[in-house]
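debug: dumping io for the single-chain case to check the tokenizer round-trip. Nothing else runs in this session.
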Amino acid sequence: MKRYSTVVMAIVGLTLIPGAASAQEHEGCFLVDSKGRVIELDELCPESGGVPPQAAIDGLPPVPGVPSSGASNGIVRVPIKYRAGGTPVIDVKFNSVQTFEMLVDTGATGTVITPAMAEALGVEKTGTAIVGTASQREVEMPLGIVDSIDVAGITINDVTVGISDALDLGLLGQDLLGQYDITIRNDVIEFHTR
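debug: decoded output
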């Protein structure tokens, strides 16, 4: 009877395991423009083995490269000021002059700033993108360019950012975070060079 129960449970368990599901509609790295066209971006995505192009794409600046400074000993520690809904908030300097509190969003592809931040930094709208957010799909978001984003000496330059009026704080995304292995501790975030 015990063996029969084990076999039945194994069969039931296999029956309840869902098949493989695709996490997104298209494979690889891509962007869907405002007309619904899929633009392949595999050469921009490090996980696809691509090498970022030297020239700008459709008027956007080149993809930021390796940060210009920071992590001399391999680890940069950045204090967490507080947490908003459990998400760490740190100070981030823009354009080498103004510091803003930003949410560290490891799930955000790029950095997103608020309209107030854009105004304070003099960021002009350069275009729009259709993006998916944690709460909505296919949201039209204005884009702008900041001269630099700096976190404790880790700097990237000429960065295209989203501008969202749905946020109270900006989101620091993978355009900077993705170049490091990140460890989020209780009171500090560690940026480990790869």
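debug: round-trip ok. The longest strand covers residues 139-151.
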